[in-house]
Structures are given as structure tokens and as C-alpha cells.
């Protein structure tokens, strides 16, 4: 039976229900994938709660899931990158329907995976690795010898950022809570800040011998942007890619004036801007990211694999902050 998880009303995790799913037919340029694994992302929980920004909330009923891995079941006219039977991973827009047995994806957003890469691992790569790679390579133009501060370094994006940054030759400072310090070190961080018990700015300046960092990657916002601006070296860049603690606090004009002499930059990054407006480059980057996986550079850390039918358990765990790495849903 083809089935999916449907959200027909917003609320707690138990609003997600299993329903039958009619298998879609590919239009020109599309690929039909029989999913075997999909990953859980914060965007899934935000949509389920009905907390998307005004104008961005998808219509209900809705199938969550923006990444996955499985086997190609059908291809349409004009698709030459994959064929029926190929093992693939994919990343999709909202509505791609990863929480289902089948998803229909445009050609640029599907990549072949080798037999040695299991579906669980492959499904944990697209959103997190592409987000980290885009920020470091396309936005930051990171170079060997530079330094980066990674907030929430024990999360999915944070883990990928640590590994990609080390591959690029950067000095990496990770910011995590007390219980995740050892994990960040295991993922390659040169230095780790326990933000609950240590002064971040003081530690950064000590680790960089007073220079500051070239980049900060920040999904937290709130009061952390102020710290980032203090920690940046002249010509450094703070990249904001989330608002886990709400919008940046303080007065932007005052903050910019205070650090004007350093010529710092503040950028925001939504991977879907790259996804939508740079299809060709996105596809190249997507293939590059999976090359890094195949070569052992990327090592996604799977917190737990939960059956799709138990998706409510997965959402509850993610929202409780009990996940280190990535949560994956298996689809049989």
C-alpha cells in the first residue's frame, strides 16, 4: 500500500495521521522516487504547529518532509541523470512529501548514491549538508587558514558545518551546551565553548589570540548576534540561518555603528533561495556534497531511526531538544 503522513489541522504531534496515498505520475522533467527513508527537520514541526511566518504557511492537508532517499520508480521525458532502479537521494521544496512512500521531484534535486551508502545515511545529508556547504563556500568563500564559530554545533547543520569546515582547512570553534561538548570534539572541532558556563567572547578571543573569527554560522539569533559581532575579526561575516531564540535582539543601527570600524558583514541564509534561484549551481553543489559523503569527509550522525508510523514520537523528541545529529524516519 502507498501511504503518507497527513496534517489536516495544526497542533500537537498527534495531529499527524497515516492515510492512503495515490502514487503521482511524473510530468516532464520529474522523477518518481519510492522513499525508504526521510529525515525530520524543524520546518516540519513549525508547519505542524501552524507557526510559519505570515503568507508562508502551506495549505492543509499537508504532507511534511523535504528530503529523503530511495529508488527511482519512474522518470519522465527529458530526464537523463537517473533511470528506473537507481538508488537516489533528494531534496525538495515544501510539499515534496517526504513523509510518504512516494515523492515526485524535479531532475536537478535528485542525485544518485552508491550501493555502499544506505538510505538512512543518504536521507540525513541533503538539507543539513547543503545548508552548511552553501554558507561556507558560496556565501563565505571560506579559505584554508581562516576561522569559524559554529553555533548549535551538535545539531544536524552544525555537525555538517564542523566536518566541511575542517575539510576546507578552517580552524573551527563549536558552541554547544554542556552535555554536547564531547560530541563536538568528536566531530572535529578544534575548540569547544560550553555556552551555558563560559563567556563566549572571552573564549573566542583567547582561542584566536585576540584576532576574532572570520565567520560565524548562527541559527540561534536572539542575543547571540551581539556576541557574534564582537567576536568577528575585521572584514568578518556573521551568517544568520535561523531564529531558534527569536529575531536578533538589540538595535541594529547601534550594533552596526559600534562595529563600523571593523567593516563586518551580516548575511542571512535560507537554503531555499539557492534551491529556487540557482538550480544549476545547486545541482552541482548537491553532487559535490554527496562526493564528500562517498569519500568519507561527511559523516552524518544519526540520533535514532524511527518508523514513519511513529512520527509523533520523532517530533516530540526533536521539539524537546533531545536530538544530537539527525532523526530519520524509515519507510517500509
Overview of this protein structure:
It is a single chain. The protein is α/β, with parallel strands linked by helices and 332 residues long. 30% of the residues lie in helices and 26% in strands. The protein has 11 helices and 15 strands. The strands form 3 sheets. Strands 3, 4, 5, 6, 7, 14 and 15 form a 7-stranded mixed beta sheet that branches. Strand 9 (171-176), helix 5 and strand 10 (191-194) form a beta-alpha-beta unit. The chain starts with a strand and ends with a strand. The model has no long low-confidence stretch (mean pLDDT 94).
What's the short story on this structure?
This protein has 332 residues and is of the alpha/beta class.
The first-level CATH class of the largest domain is given as Alpha Beta
Order of helices and strands: EEEHEEEEHHEHEHEHEHEHEHHEHE
Helix content: 25-40%
* Helical run tally: 11
**Rg, alpha carbons:** 20 Å
Integer average pLDDT:
94
Low-confidence region ranges: none
Structural class given helices, strands, pairing? alpha/beta
CATH fourth-tier homologous superfamily of the largest domain = Medium-chain alcohol dehydrogenases, catalytic domain
The total beta strand count reads 15
Largest sheet: 7 strands, mixed
**Tally of individual domains:** 2
Task: Tell me what the CATH architecture of the largest domain is.
Answer: Alpha-Beta Complex
Q: In CATH terms, what is the fold-level topology of the largest domain?
A: Quinone Oxidoreductase, Chain A, domain 1
| Gap between N and C termini | 10 Å
* β-sheet strand percentage: 25-35%
Overall geometric form: globular
